């Protein structure tokens, strides 16, 4: 599920598991910074230890799925190819969770029915009254 306008701070999966996709490794000071569209997610304030990933939403979802069960959710920038891979169980939209309001972010949460993510850029699902059963996915 997607929670608009919130993110989960500083509860990321160990970045050594996806180091080559980190913005500072992939983009800063490399030829990719100017040629790879995903490097638009690089923030000039990123520090060498920052865990931001420069990938499109679909790719962030694939990465999270590949890191299961470590990845619980994703903080996805609303307009840039930039995400954070969340590890902590408190990174869900429930009362008492440490989510921070910010209109630039979306929290993508894996649920028991969502063993993986299925985003297709440029398309949105219509609102439905009920949820699909796992066997219907």
Plain-language structure description:
The chain is α+β, with helices and mostly antiparallel strands. The chain has helices spanning 23-26, 32-35, 57-66, and strands at 2-7, 73-77, 83-86, 100-109. Strands 1-4-2-3 form a four-stranded antiparallel β-sheet, covered by helices on one side. 30% of the residues are buried. Mean pLDDT is 83; it is low at 123-137.
Alpha-beta classification: alpha+beta
Number of strands: 4
Mean pLDDT: 83
Large-scale geometry: globular
Distance from first to last alpha carbon: 14 Å
What is the CA-based Rg, rounded?
A: 15 Å
Give the % helix. 10-25%
Question: Total number of helical segments?
Answer: 3
Topology pattern, helix = H, strand = E: EHHHEEE
Instruction: Specify the biggest β-sheet.
Output: 4 strands, antiparallel
Query: Any low-confidence stretches, pLDDT <50, length ≥5?
Result: 123-137
The portion of residues forming beta strands comes to 15-25%
Biggest sheet strand order reads: 1-4-2-3
Describe the structure concisely for a colleague.
By secondary structure, this protein is an alpha+beta fold. It has helices spanning 23-26, 32-35, 57-66, and strands spanning 2-7, 73-77, 83-86, 100-109. The chain has a 4-stranded antiparallel beta sheet with strand order 1-4-2-3, covered by helices on one side.
Descriptors for this entry?
single chain, 137 residues, alpha+beta, 4-stranded antiparallel sheet, 3 helices, disordered C terminus
